[in-house]
Structure formats: structure tokens, C-alpha cells
């Protein structure tokens, strides 16, 4: 059974994963949600106005009331900059499986932050929440996302053709990845995290 503990603060070597707050809206908008270089690899379109970001954040923040909501902003320890987001979602009680998704602002790409955040959340999902399997999908024309899944121990399970149609009306083939809790534990490549209960 999944052990839900909400969205506690998680520290990694260089990052703090923490709950988002409304006053993050401008940074979320500026740093990734208004940027088409990021949104082209997500399902929803880039935000045009910060009011859209505020509405989205208000929904995420309201959901923190539930212990079953796992949605982190990704903050750099070095300067406190909010550089991205990561969440566990679609918890399935029949299987104890869930999905993960994430985004890192373009300016902070290719510095290992996506891998560090994903490894931390995979560790949290398996060793703190007792999830059975974590899955994710990325557009096949976005190989960096597949790369960080591999670095977090996930394996490719196949490609689904035209799995999504993005905001620009383009169909995208998606590569599906997953990892089982037992394989993660057997792999013994545990991410070093510090979980601070909220
Ligand atoms: C995908 C994403 C989260 C990666 O974050 P990141 O912080 O850049 O990731 P990292 O720096 O930890 O790792 C990126 C890896 O991809 C590799 N990579 C980058 N561009 C690549 C490319 N075009 N082809 C193959 N590999 C690539 C990097 O070399 C690196 O691997 P390495 O550490 O083995 O060298 C980030 O690019 C992003 O948010 N993109 C837009 C939104 C998105 O794609 N979300 C996920 C939807 S599934």
C-alpha cells in the first residue's frame, strides 16, 4: 500500500525540493512556464500571462491539503533560485503505481539538476512512500528527458506512436519508461536525500 505523506521538503546535494507558494508565480512564469523551449516538450502550452501561472499555482497549492499530493518546486541551494518543478501523480490504488513528470528552466539545463531532482523523487517514492512502480513518458524528439530517466535507473518499455498532440497541434511519439521498487532497491544506487517533514 502507498504511504502518502504529502510534499515534504527534500534536500539533495545542490537542491531543495519544496512546496510551491503563490509568491513563486513570477519566477515560475519567467523561469520555465512562459518558455516555449520548455513547454514544447510538455503537454500544455506556454503561459502568455502570469495570471495563468497564478491560477495554476493556486490549484497546486490548494491540493497540498491532501496527503496524496506530491508536487515540488526545485530550488537551488546556492542562490535560492526556483529553477523547475517535479511531481508524482496518477497514483493507482489497484497497483500502487504512479507517474513522474518534471521541468527545468532552459537557462539551468544540462547542469545535472534534472537528474538530481528525479533521482531524489524516485528515492522518495520507493523508500518513503512504498510505491510499486514509477513510470514516465517523453517525446522521442526530447532525448534529454530519456537520458535523465536512464540515469535515475528507469528502463525503456516501448514507444507509443502519436501518444500526444501538443499545443501546436503536432502529434508526438512518446517513449515510455518505468522502474520497479524491487529493482531500484536491488540496484543499490540510493540517492542521498534528507526528507524534512512539513
Ligand atoms: C528534460 C529536462 C528535465 C532535463 O533536465 P536537465 O537539468 O537538463 O538534465 P541533466 O542536466 O540532469 O541531464 C541531461 C542529460 O541529457 C543529455 N542531453 C541533453 N541534450 C541531449 C540530446 N539532444 N540528446 C541526447 N542527450 C542529451 C545531457 O548530456 C545529459 O546527460 P549526461 O549527464 O549523461 O551528459 C529539461 O531539459 C527540461 O525540463 N526540458 C523541458 C521540459 C521537459 O522536457 N520535461 C519532461 C517532459 S517528459
Jot down its keywords:
198 residues, alpha+beta, Aminopeptidase, 9-stranded mixed sheet, 6 helices, 9 strands, binds coenzyme A, acyltransferase activity, transferring groups other than amino-acyl groups, transferase, N-acetyltransferase, GNAT_dom, Acetyltransferase, GNAT family
Describe the structure.
Keywords: Transferase. It comes from Mesobacillus selenatarsenatis (strain DSM 18680 / JCM 14380 / FERM P-15431 / SF-1). The protein is α+β, with helices and mostly antiparallel strands. The chain has a domain at 9-131 and 188-196: Gcn5-related N-acetyltransferase (GNAT) (Aminopeptidase). Helices cover 29% and strands 32% of the residues. The protein contains six helices and nine strands; from the N terminus they run E-E-H-H-H-E-E-E-H-E-H-E-E-H-E. It has helices at 25-33, 36-39, 50-63, 113-127, 143-151, 181-187, and strands at residues 9-11, 15-18, 70-76, 82-92, 97-104, 133-139, 155-165, 171-180, 194-196. It has a nine-stranded mixed beta sheet with strand order 7-8-6-5-4-3-2-1-9, with helices on both faces. Helix 4 (113-127) links the parallel strand 5 (97-104) and strand 6. Helix 4 (113-127) crosses helix 5 (143-151). The model has no long low-confidence stretch (mean pLDDT 96). The structure holds coenzyme A. Coenzyme A is lined by residues 38, 41-42, 101-104, 109-115, 138, 142-145, 147-148. Coenzyme A (COA) is lined by residues 38, 41-42, 101-104, 109-115, 138, 142-145, 147-148.
Amino acid at each position: 500500500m502507498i504511504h502518502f505523506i504529502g510534499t515534504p521538503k527534500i534536500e539533495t546535494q545542490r537542491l531543495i525540493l519544496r512546496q510551491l507558494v503563490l509568491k513563486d508565480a513570477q519566477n515560475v512564469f519567467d523561469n520555465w512556464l512562459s518558455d516555449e523551449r520548455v513547454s514544447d516538450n510538455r503537454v500544455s502550452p506556454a503561459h502568455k500571462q502570469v495570471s495563468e501561472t497564478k491560477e495554476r499555482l493556486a490549484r497546486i497549492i490548494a491540493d497540498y491539503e491532501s496527503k496524496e499530493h506530491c508536487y515540488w518546486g526545485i530550488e537551488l541551494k546556492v542562490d535560492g533560485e526556483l529553477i523547475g518543478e517535479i511531481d508524482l501523480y496518477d497514483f493507482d490504488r489497484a497497483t500502487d503505481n504512479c507517474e513522474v513528470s518534471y521541468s527545468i528552466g532552459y537557462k539551468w539545463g544540462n547542469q545535472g539538476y534534472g537528474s538530481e531532482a528525479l533521482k531524489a523523487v524516485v528515492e522518495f517514492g520507493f523508500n518513503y512512500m512504498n510505491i510499486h512502480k514509477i513510470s514516465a513518458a517523453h517525446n522521442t524528439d526530447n532525448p534529454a528527458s530519456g537520458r535523465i530517466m536512464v540515469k535515475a535507473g528507469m528502463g525503456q518499455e516501448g514507444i507509443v506512436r502519436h501518444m500526444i498532440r501538443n499545443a501546436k497541434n503536432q502529434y508526438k511519439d512518446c517513449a515510455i519508461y518505468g522502474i520497479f521498487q524491487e529493482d531500484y532497491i536491488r540496484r543499490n544506487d540510493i540517492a542521498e536525500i534528507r526528507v524534512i517533514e512539513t
